[in-house]
Amino acid sequence: MSDLAIAAPHRRAAGTGEAMAAWALTLPAAIAYLLMLLLPTLATAALAFTDYELGLDGFRWIGLGNFAEMLEDRGFLQSLRNTLVYVGLVTPGSIIGALLLALAIEAGTRGRTLFRAVFFLPVVSLSVAMAAAWQYLLHPTIGPLNAALRVIGIEGPAWLSSSDTVLLSLAAIGIWENLGFNLVLFLAGLTAIPRELYAAAAVDGVPSAWERFRLVTWPLLGPTTLFVLTITMIRSVRVFDTVVVLTQGGPNKASQVLLYTLYEEGFTYFRIGYSAAITLVFLGIVLASMWLQTKVLDKRVHYA
Amino acid sequence: MPERTPLLRDLPRLLFLTAAGLLMLMPYIWMAAASLKPLDEIFRASLSLWPERFFAAENYGKVFERIPVGRYLWNGVVVCGGILAFQILFAVPAGYALAKLRFRGRELVFGAVMLGLLVPPHVPALPLYVAFSQMGLLNSYTALIAPFTISVFAIFLFRQFFKSLPDDLIHAARLDGMSEMAIVWRVVLPNAWPAATAFAIFSVVAHWNDLFWPLIIANGDSHATPALGVMFFRSAEAGDDFGALMAAAVIMTAPLVIAFLLAQRRFVEGIASTGLKG
């Protein structure tokens, strides 16, 4: 490694040596990038246009065949619809909840650290284990939730095994999982708002807390909210763990989601080509969420 | 410090937060309670949290008896430790080169990093699986660790942080005759601990909790991570013995939750500041 030493202290003289050193330092990362990220990603894109199955010899190029099959595949269409519904429930749910709680925490000085820790706990908890806890909590006969409902005379549904409620239950768990993460981002955003602005609003005769929120907090929180929105969408499109543990896509595909379909097709049935095509759809949704942030909403939320 | 509001006026806010917090903790409370109860009490579905008959020893004993808990936890440590070590080893020098050195192709490398940030880890999974399967590496630490050795996010994070370090620091080290490699590990990294700890926490939490890749790669006890361990136990017990299942869940969740409670501030800041990659 010592041959990387640069004798000349001046930048100009060190030109080639500096470049050599830079490439030497970048090389391990570049090789790993190539092998573990770039080539496999390109391979996924290529496989999406083949009928490759693991265990069979060879494959054929079938053009858009896999994508045509998707349009006919009830399981896939259901999983796409379910994923969008799930994202549509978890995103607003966990953002509004997190914002309310962040405002409540920020409004006083007592209990800040404690509450922040409590709400953040699910972020660091083993999701598979917590899914098992939810399975018990939501169990139709022995679960505490339905036991509590029975006390007030309601017979609760079979939350996770009825096709009417399963997606709703998974979304509730999703909100629970994402809330603390969003809360911490909102808290950071709120702390960054200068105190003087609230004082100025008071001087200008802005009376109610709601008006203060509408005129000062909400506009200045714009960039944070947009960031939280994008991140929550991307995180919730990836819903997988709870589905694997709790429902396996059931009952009757009512909780089939994109990543679970991808997993089943690719790693259970070994239909690599078809699964790669689903991967591209998944990637498309993730990229669209990011694009939404940079292009569409960016103009409206930046107050320079 | 602003004046503290009187407790009485602060009370509605505190009550609201306490109620919301209790709601948030429900799964933990019931999980812990059920892990202490015998099965017949759980099946009675009473709303009392405290067990009438204390059954902790039996429930937790059963977990240790039926599944190799130590093995799973050890696998979790090896996989998370291995991933983190390679990520730091590869990303820190690259981040330094991008931040402080001038070379042809720097823009290209940085562009590749930004492009990599857009790709979720599920996207390269299929070809990697096929490759590892051809090489006979399924069910190995190599296959569990290798795909995550490159973290473009770590490169990005370290580059941003290193850019803010003063150039004089590096010039001084060069004048002392240090090689660039030595500068990276002995001058730059020691000055970047906040970024390094933030990333370390982010990485360990992500991979300790990951299910997708271990589910694909590991297919037996020998290389199962804690997340898989809970799943195996659940299917082995047909998922009906909730007392023991909750005990298993408590055991596997505990290490990270305890670490979090001990270093709460660092965790929150680490994960929030690195939240970018989700």
UniProtKB/TrEMBL annotation, chain B:
UniProt key word Amino-acid biosynthesis: no
Record's subcellular location: Cell membrane
Biological process (GO), any one: transmembrane transport
GO CC entries: plasma membrane
Entries under Gene3D superfamilies matching the protein: MetI-like
Membrane topology: Multi-pass membrane protein
Any Pfam family matching the protein: BPD_transp_1
Domain (ABC transmembrane type-1): residue spans on this chain: 73-263
Cross-referenced SUPFAM superfamilies: MetI-like
UniProt feature coiled coil, ranges: none
PANTHER family membership: ABC TRANSPORTER PERMEASE PROTEIN MG189-RELATED (PTHR43744:SF12), ABC TRANSPORTER PERMEASE PROTEIN MG189-RELATED-RELATED (PTHR43744)
Family indicated by similarity: Belongs to the binding-protein-dependent transport system permease family.
Full protein name: Carbohydrate ABC transporter permease
Protein's organism: Teichococcus oryzae
